[in-house]
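Dear colleagues,

As part of the handover before I leave the project, I'm documenting each prediction I ran so the next person doesn't have to rerun anything. This entry is a single chain, and its sequence is reproduced below.
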Amino acid sequence: MNEIWSLYKDGRWEVPFLTFSIYLFVAAAFILYLIIVASRNSKIKKERLTKEYSATIDKILSAVIFENVPFAKIKEDKNFLVLFDTSFFREVLTDSLINLHKNYEGVYAKKLEQFYKDSGLIKDSFRKLKSLRWEVKCKGITELAEFNIKEAFDLIIAFSKARKKTLKIVAINACIKLEGTQSIKYLVEHSDPIDDWMQLNIIGAFKKHDVGNTEGIEHLLESQNTTVITLGLKLIKELKLSQKVPHVAQLADQTTNTIIKYEAQSILQALTA
């Protein structure tokens, strides 16, 4: 300690310190440069492979949709199997499937869903739910919901209580798509606050997925969570569920929360006008 203090008093520490700082800065800059170059090269490679894969994928999916070619027939092609063994090819294939599925309905959509199952891409999606990265979990949830994999509901609903808000929203929206109002009972028991942004997303999910059966939405008004009650009121208003007026009126009469009472009375006026 005395030696260090002596160096400090004599001013002999300045040159070694500045020399070390310069070397450290140069090394850090060089490492950062290498990381940027590697990242850029990786991105360019992925873009090139995506274009190459897309041509093959378009032919495969065209055969699946319009020629009724099953996956068992497609995997007889050895070149396809070599590509299919690479995770990036399967990612591009899954993205292409999702884009097509969004634009097709009826028989064509069912063919794409069957291909998703037969090819084993569904296993990749389930595997993503176990990832430690929230964005990977979101991707897996979105894929399973897009292809209407209802058996994934119990796994997905567990993420509705995640700490990450984006993951929570994606999970709830997916459950609404998969089971419609069946997901209501889980929202009733939801203990965490559902903020305005989440409420907008949930209402948007009900509208987007055109949930025809609105039976059970009134149970949201029975929750112990005031934010869930607010969500229920907003859903009734936005979906114009005039048949739920008696439930809203009962809430307005019985609640001791002045904010909830005011919202309920406001919605009653809007629905009975």
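Residues 14-66 form the longest helix (53 residues). Residues 78 and 154 are 37 Å apart (CA to CA).

All the best with the project,
I.
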